[in-house]
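Researcher: Structure for this, please.
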Amino acid sequence: MKQQGFTLTELLVSLVISSILLLGISTFLIAGKSSWQTQLRLTSSQEIERFTVLQLRRAIRQAYAIEMVSDEKVLVLTYAAEEGSRNCLGQLQESGSSYINRFTVSDDQLRCNGHSLISGVKSVRFAYGVDKNDDGRIEASEYDSAPDSCCLVRSVEFEFRLSGINEDQQPMIYSAALRRY
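Model: Predicted structure, token format:
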């Protein structure tokens, strides 16, 4: 009589081979998911940085003046409203009036006039550029941590740290000139 089926040894060998294959496949899937999540966090971080730079540069370039209450952590900008002018929250401003936008960071959010613009911003540092030697340029040494009452601020330099994946990365320094310069 002929034997049918598999021996115990054959079953154990096939079980070991199947286990090794499943372990390899699951390791590959876990590594892929981890890589995907890291890439997603990097993309999100880059988007936060891009939006923050865009918002601050646009606000600075459209401003008429820097308020004296500004410092390293707070940027207060004054605007002369024209037809169709909007504040940082998108609210239409009356033509011929003036209005103020106040930028700060709190609770990991860039805020304007107390309202959150974007999450993921851990801290910000502002510096105010004055053309002290009247050469038409603002050198790095001409930036101070607060506006000077004797001279008009012509440019604002800012850097910020993001929360999360690249929190420890050295921040980039950005700058923008005010509208009238």
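Researcher: Any notable elements?
Model: The mean pLDDT is 89. The radius of gyration is 28 Å.
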